[in-house]
Amino acid sequence: MAEGYWGRQGLSRRRVLRGAGLGVAGLAVAALVGCSSDGDDSSATAAAGGGTPAGAAGGSQANPQRTPGPVIEVSGAPVYSKRFPEKTKTLEDFHWSKHPDRLNPQVPKPGGVVVTEFYGSPEHNYVVSGNQGAAAMAALCSNMVLSIDYGVFADNDDLQVTTRNAVAEGWEQPDETTYLFHFRKNVKWQNVAPVNGRAFTAEDAAYAWEVLRSDPKSAQSAIFRDVTAIEVVDDYTMKVTLNQPNVAFLKGISAPYTSMFSREQYEGTDSLSKTTVGTGPFIEKSFDPAEGATYVKNPDYFMEDDFGQKLPYVDAVLDINIADAESARAAFAAKQIDDIVHGRISRTEDMERMRQQVPEHGLQVWPPNGTFIYIMNFNQANPLLNDVRVRQALSMSMDRVNTFIDTVHNGSATTAGYLVHTYMGDRFPLPPEKLGKYFEYNPAEARKLLDAAGAPNPLQLEVLNSDISRGTFVEGVQPDFAEAGVQLQLQTVEAVAAVNAYFNREWKDLHTWSQVTVHGNDQDGWAFERYHSQSPQNSGGYSNPKIDELAEKQRREFDVEARREIWREMHGILLEDIPLIVAGGTFEPVMWHSHLHEFTDNFVSWMLSWAGTQFQNVWLDDRAPKRNVRELVDDPQGFVRRHLTGVPLVT
Amino acid sequence: MQTYIAKRLLLVLPTLFLVTTVTFLLVRAMPGDVLMARLAESGLLGSSAGGFNDAEREALRERLGLNDPLPIQYVKWVGGIATGDFGESLWNNQPVAEVIGNALPATLQLGVMALALAWLLALPLGIISAVRRNTVRDYAARFITIGGIVLPDFWVGVIVILLLSKVWNYFPPLLFVGLFDDPRANLEKLIIPALILGFRLSAIGARMTRSAMLEVLGSDYIRTAWAKGLNERSVVMRHALRNSVLPVITVLGAQLSILIGGTVIMETLFVIPGMGRLAITSVTARDFPLIQANVLVLSVFVVFANLLVDISYGFVDPRIRYS
Amino acid sequence: MLALWSAGLVRFARRQPVGAASGAVLVAVVLIAVFAPTVARYEPTQVFRGEALLPPSSSHWLGTDDVGRDVWARIIFGTRISVTVGLVPVTIAVLLGWLIGLTSGYFGGWFDLLVQRVIDAWIAFPTLILAITLAAVMKPGIQNVLIAITVIFIPGAVRVVRSVTLPLTESPFVEAARALGASHTRILLRHILPNTVAVVLIIGSISIAGAILTESGLSFLGIGIQPPTTSWGQMLSGSGRARLNDAPWIGIAPGVAIGIVVLAANLFGDALRDHLDPRLRGRDA
User: Fold this and answer.
1) Inter-chain residue contact B32 with A287, CB threshold 8 Å
2) pLDDT digit string (tens) for B202-221?
3) Per-residue pLDDT tens digits for C22-56
4) What pLDDT does A95 receive?
5) Cα separation of A288 and A644, whole Å?
6) For residues B68, B74, B75 and B76, what is the CA-based torsion angle, rounded to 10 degrees?
7) For residue A282, what are the CA distances in angstroms to A185, A299, A315, A617, A640?
8) Which residue in A has a C-alpha nearest to residue C134's C-alpha?
9) What is the rounded CA–CA span in Å between residue A610 and residue A251?
10) By percentage, how much of chain B surpasses pLDDT 70?
11) Helix (H, G, I), strand (E, B) or coil at A557
12) Which CA distances in Å does A59 have to A12, A42, A54, A160, B201?
């Protein structure tokens, strides 16, 4: 519901903040998306937790035609909605496996220009910033050592690590703390200064990882926190040693936060903060924080598809910054952009309008699985909020079903818990009955608990907020809380001011903001990063020794089922201990014009910055509006011209 | 007259000094700095793993010069401007001058188009209103122009976008191209926002024209002109309009800042890469050099426009002496 | 005294029927603000469960908004804020602007130069950027909204008053008064001030509209009026704008409310101007 005007969250024009505007509890999070649940579809993928070495190679990695995921079994969902349109009641219709490209695979056609909304961010240096936007840009222009198979989503499975779109062609794990990565031999840096097309070797990968691990400015050092040594074995082999088992490690290094960059660029004058040069499918030609960015095809890219065609298919990607949601919808309907995602159409009515205005479209509705959630965080330095009874009472003071789901979100939302429930083998949707009594609305009981804790009546709590849609959420639940004698006072401030208050702990009681973790593609991003008392992400200051113990334990458990069991135990405790108030999650529709094929962008993939990697697989058919790069370039003054000069053009 | 102009030009300097000082202090009074803005962007709040710990923050602030005493920062910045160096963006190290240079043409063109449209509408309506005071035509003209100021421009903009989209599936081109490169595409992109802005500005213009005209029409020399038996056209156009130009010009000057506010919103809604959007993005990013340069450039325009207004008083109204 | 007033009112109403009607509308708006709890039917913050986004009906005259609150109640209570925002900052700004513009234009010299430099800088500062930075600097709240709007409207008033004062100081009747040895105060108050009333009224009436609109803009920027207090600008810029497509009544209602007040303020200002301007008296009745 990132519908707000630029003035609020759009002061944050980028998608990151737009995402944050969604009240996304963990941009963090991860993964709705994963490979198919049967897990044995491709030799190139392996369950990350399995520790199974999978030396993978060959054409299958380059195969853009992915195996369909399982159809969601829940029909009639969302079960709590009174208003969500009839059509969406069976989510199967919108499932990936019903994607036209799945039902009717075609041979990709090269050429054309994709125009999309802003993926970039106002800065490049993702090493320093740990910024999704910067990471997404990097994912267009570079590769990771390994990547995550983002294309298909399963509702109950874990993510799969893959060598597809990665510089490694396989990896081994001789023991729990040692990893050997084998690199492709045909990888070259882009033919751009300062690397000028030289070959990519294990030396380069080791350098980039070493910087990420040990440079004090690195925002990603947490991924490498258990790493004790990164060694080059030979030109195409790298050995990494950990001081303790870390199940999340492989998934951590598969996020675009670890895209490859060169020593020349990091240490030289062609700074990484000015442009992104990597090994990837697209070469960055321009970047303007207000306007957007342009990328052209890298003719020397190493990946090929099944048919022996070179990737990427499209000649260029134009990434335009559209600040306003209404403008974005209008531009999409007018075929000026090829896709529309991320809160632009999360409101049912807006989605329906787009469906009518754009008859030839593809559409997916991503159900909430507990990854994008609206939360209120407690400042537990406040002794009152450190009292578990008060937290329980406040959690019971919110009417999730009537207010959050049906009123504020018009039915297009569900309840959610503290951990990503699909990781634990649970199915969508997670009903409130499974969440225990503190997730049910009970103002009388809440008042009793508040009285027992000695809370004043009425209890006044300040809620710091910086976003219009989360503001609406708070306004909506204010009367619920009032029933229990709790007065929520909404304090809406400008985005950076809110961050400033948060960072400096200048918020009083509650905060609707939430954080990201670089470990987002693993449950660890929640189980440890959010609830462990020593985790810097646990900004509310929640502390429970038992949770700390379990959070550390799940990190070392390689057995998938045993690890799930730990999470279930944790979740049981959290449901009683109420570390924060979880309202629920919203549906996230993603729509694209039918002329755009193999489009797999979605809220989750973008949040995890995978969105960039998909553009090497998308292609445009004949119905796409003719956007000739040469024509665009012949415009001597405009945006594209300014940035695309000197580009090798495709006719 | 020449002395006056020279003097006024000289006095532009203290004005700009005030503007730069206020901007400089105001941006630094905002909570947070570019590092906080980065954290806001990355979402890595309070995390030493992502983001920065206190020592690293200090080091970065040091490197960016944010720890220098304010007067030193100020002198550095003004000194840079004096030598034509506006510094680099704190976000992505692009030269500020280049960023501003890219954004200026679109805003200038939008502003000029809006002003032209505004006065095309305002003058005739204002004159009709005054000459046909308290008639149906007066009220009609006043209703039309007041229509321009009763609703916020963002709201009008959104309704226009929504209607264009729902009725014709239309949205102006996303990419901005120069006027001389592709006049058609350029005008297609800018005409709708310029119309919205122009309509808004015309309200003030028409009202000022009307009231100034009324004042003049009530004066003795106009009575004399009527008494001489001059026809209406001659009275209105030759005598009245000429003498009512002064307040109208004043409003023109004052309109500039409204215009700049309006371009911010139009640029946001209609995806125009101009100064207004840059202002928003740079404030959000706490990109001090960029905000400062942005305000400075816009201010220079307004200051000189107002200077022209003041000077033109002397030409238009001989009663004013410049001493 | 009372008789004198009512006689004046009657004369005004007879000469300026539209202006009088507009004045009546403004008075009605003020009355609505005062008696809001009686007129509103519901509390503005009352959420009707399961009744979000209902179109206008007999139980909700203007429908309900996106969290299920009665739009009519919110409009009526919003009147209070809009009246405050329209009157308080504008009055302060116009009075200050009047004082500064008058003295600066009359005395001229170094004083005028100094004032004009400050005003130049003030005007030159882009309003919206000023608002955005103020939004970041100040904590949200009604006082700060009033301060921000006052700050925005002062320089315009100063400039316009000064521009009217300049020719007046050179005019024959002022020179005559000077020759007769009248004091500055007397000249300013008796000769110049009355001649600036008209322009001040116009600036004032336009600014009321501008102030109400500025408040809506500030609502966007995060320094607007904070819930649970309701303002028209807040309604317009929040769900009103976002829901224009599917629930237009949420955004149209505050838009129309703003439109009515702005229109009335403008027409009233015009009428008052015509009525007060001595040169226009009797020209047509």
Assistant:
1) no
2) 887 887 788 788 877 777 77
3) 889 989 999 999 998 888 888 888 888 777 788 89
4) 59
5) 13
6) 60
7) 20, 9, 9, 12, 16
8) A494
9) 13
10) 89
11) coil
12) 41, 11, 15, 18, 63
CB-based contact (8 Å) between C46 and chain A? Answer: yes
Taking a contact as any Cβ pair under 8 Å apart, which residues of chain C between 122 and 141 contact chain A?
A: 132, 135-136, 139-140
List of chain C residues whose C-beta atoms are within 8 Å of the C-beta of residue A4 = 242
d(Cα A519, Cα A364) in Å, to the nearest integer? 26
Residue A489, beta-bridge partner list:
A462
Q: What does residue B118 show for φ and ψ, rounded to 5 degrees?
A: -60, -45
Instruction: Give the gap in angstroms from C-alpha B120 to the nearest C-alpha of chain A.
Output: 28
Structure tokens at C97: 């602007």
Pair A143, A259: CB distance under 8 Å: yes
Candidate ranges A56-60, B176-180, C87-91; pick with highest mean pLDDT: C87-91
How many other C-beta atoms lie within 10 A of the C-beta of residue A438? 22
* Packing angle of the helix pair B2-29, B70-82 (nearest 10 deg): 140
pLDDT in tens, C113-154: 888 888 878 878 877 777 777 767 777 678 878 888 888 888
Contact (CB<8Å) B154/C217: yes
pLDDT digit string, tens, across residues A305-337 = 877 888 899 988 888 888 888 899 999 999 999
C-beta separation of C160 from B247 below 8 A = yes
What is the C-alpha separation between A373 and A367, in angstroms, rounded? 12
Residue C45 contacts A where some CB pair is shorter than 8 Å = yes
Residue A414 φ then ψ, to 5°: -140, 175
Q: Which pLDDT band holds residue B322 (cuts at 50, 70, 90)?
A: low
pLDDT at residue C75 above 80? yes
Phi-psi label, residue B87: left if phi above 0, alpha if psi -120 to 50, beta otherwise: left
CB-CB contact of A490 with A465 (8 Å): yes
Closest alpha carbon within chain B to A224: B49
- CA nearest to B278 within chain C: C129
**Nearest CB to A493 within list C45, C140, C241:** C140
Which chains have at least 3 CB atom pairs separated by less than 8 Å from chain A? B, C
List alpha helices for A439-528, DSSP H: 443-452, 468-483, 495-503, 524-527
Contacts of C209 in chain B (CB under 8 A): 149-150
Q: Which of B281, B282, B291 to mutate to test the interface with A (most CBs of A within 10 A)?
A: B281
**DSSP state letters, B110-179:** HHHHHHHHHHHHHHHHHHHHHHTTTSHHHHHHHHHHHHHHHS-HHHHHHHHHHHHHHHH-----SS---T
Q: If DSSP codes are grouped into helix, strand and coil, which group holds residue A594? A: coil
pLDDT of residue A437: 92
- What is the rounded average pLDDT for all residues in chain A? 75
**What percent of chain C has pLDDT above 70?**
92
Tens-digit pLDDT profile for residues A565-606: 999 999 999 999 999 999 888 777 788 898 998 887 655 555
CB A496 within 8 A of CB B43: no
The residues, any chain, with a CB within 8 Å of residue B2's CB and separated by 6 or more, are: none
Q: How far apart are CA A341 and CA A611, in angstroms?
A: 11
| pTM of the model as a whole | 0.83
Closest residue, chain C, to A467 (C-alpha): C222
- The DSSP annotation for A82-112 comes to SSS-GGGGSGGGGSGGGSHHHHS--------
Which tops the pLDDT comparison, B239 or C106?
C106
Rounded to an integer, the average pLDDT of A333-347 is 84
Residue type, B33: D
**Tokens coding B179:** 């006027």
What tokens does A349 get? 């009515």
